[in-house]
Amino acid sequence: MTALETTTASSEQVSGAEIRLDGVTKIYRGQKAPAVDNISLTVPAGEIVMFVGPSGCGKTTTLKMINRLIEPSSGTISIGGEDIRGKKVDELRRTIGYVIQGGSLFPHMSVAKNISLVPKLLGWDSARIKERVDELLDLVGLDPAKYRSRYPRELSGGQQQRVGVARGLAADPPVILMDEPFGAVDPMTRQRLQDELLSIQRELRKTIVCVTHDIDEAIKLGDRVLILQEGAHIAQYDTPEVVLSTPANDFAQDFVGAGSSLKRLSLARVSDLELRMPTTATIGEDTAQVRRRAEANGDNAVIVLDSRNRPRGWPWLRQLTGATIVDPDKDPVTLDTRATLNDALDTMLVSGHGGALVTGDRDAYLGVVDFRTVTDFIEAMQREAEAETAPSAGGTDEHPAERISIAPTDEELEQGQA
Ligand code: ADP
Ligand code: MG
Q: Over the stretch 141-167, which tens digit does the pLDDT of each residue have?
């Protein structure tokens, strides 16, 4: 199913509002050339639209005009059919979440205080705010009990970014604007945050406009991708599939890159793969019993789930002794079902099991995906793409199979653990 079909299928749950830009121009004072030159654009309700383009092409300017951090020189912008100039600026901004790089948290405020800024302004009572903060922390994958009272300096970059996202969502705004939200974190954390965003979006169906300079991120996250060139001129505005397969012009072509097979890996998701369902156990269960069950299933490891069905351990059978079956300091390697196959390969390389635990909404366990499944799938995709584009144009793109040949076998893995 494509992203567009998904949107249509669940349109009754959409909580976002349509955004329209009509002939919008911004000329900064003292400059001749417009930073944004007459852009017209509709962002459908409930979709993620990714603005992508080179530095200085006008992405941030366009974004900031939507919440009136910048006023257009001319043109109209409407949200949910209403001209945004019809509202007071403060009021407008309370209905638009805004997430920027690093999370931009106030350093002297706790996580809870940071998240509750807008709900406070809206006059929510303290019980409702407290509940909302915990709900949001949970949603962005941070344990409320552990994190609500911490200060930003006590968090990693990725955790700060998560809190930034929670703050953007706090008052349940129909529209969320994000400006390079995951630009400042390491690639592994970025991947998790992207997955988290897709997971959140599946539940919430906001209208999200997200700026990035990274075409891979645009393709992964976007229901649609808007490729901009200087002056915010639209080079192409379409689904990731079309942008990859049929660049509209030379600029789009260059920006997307040579339609590489690796980029196509970003279109396929873990959810497209078949999952294995090995033996599971619940925290606190008797290990002798668990071991018997696993042996009967022919498994040499078990997946330990907590009371909310989240994976907490993935011990080999011989590690199962005594009563406790979870090492609280060692969370297993997990992969969100929305992760791309590209991400999947990266994640699996650090897994001790030659595969990864797949999780869905709120980190709930879904099954196991093995290396072999991924590589088989990629090879099939590869064959399909080659059949499409034969004769091959060559190129220097790394072949996916080369990336995974360094993967250890199951036995090597188990020995490594012994
Ligand atoms: P992007 O986010 O795509 O990198 P921006 O929207 O930040 O691009 O900038 C678009 C153009 O407008 C650039 O040429 C930039 O130098 C210029 N610009 C951005 N902000 C200002 C400003 N406050 N004053 C003057 N020029 C600006
Ligand atoms: Mg910018």
A: 889 999 999 999 999 888 998 899 899
